Amino acid sequence: MQKSLFLKAQGSTPRNKIWDFLIVHQEYDYSMKDIAKFAGVGYTTLKKIWKDFENNHLVVNTRNVGKAKMYKLNVDNSVVQKFTDFYWSVIDSKINEQNVVSKAEHKCASKAKIVAE
Fold first, then answer.
1. What mean pLDDT, rounded, does the chain reach?
2. 3-state class of 65 per DSSP?
3. Can you tell me the distance from the alpha carbon of 35 to that of 23, in angstroms, rounded to the nearest whole number?
4. CATH assignment of 5-116?
């Protein structure tokens, strides 16, 4: 699985992986088992972190499917809103850095071509 720009910038910790998954897929609900799988963290690790997410109302239980509880990011929570803003600002920053590097590489390649001619 390829790391997101957020994980490359902020570190690929289990908590960051969970945030990354929940923010990108915030319009859908998932079971804890699926969150662990798709976020790339162990289920036991998720259970330890999940208590904090639930206690701080960062996630909401949307429905039950059989024995599985389905959860999604609580977009009405102010902490979630601020972290989501931070998440996307990190992504924007990394994209801008890549564009600057790309433009600089293009200029160097153009200059090298001119010198070679």
1. 89
2. strand
3. 12
4. 1.10.10.10
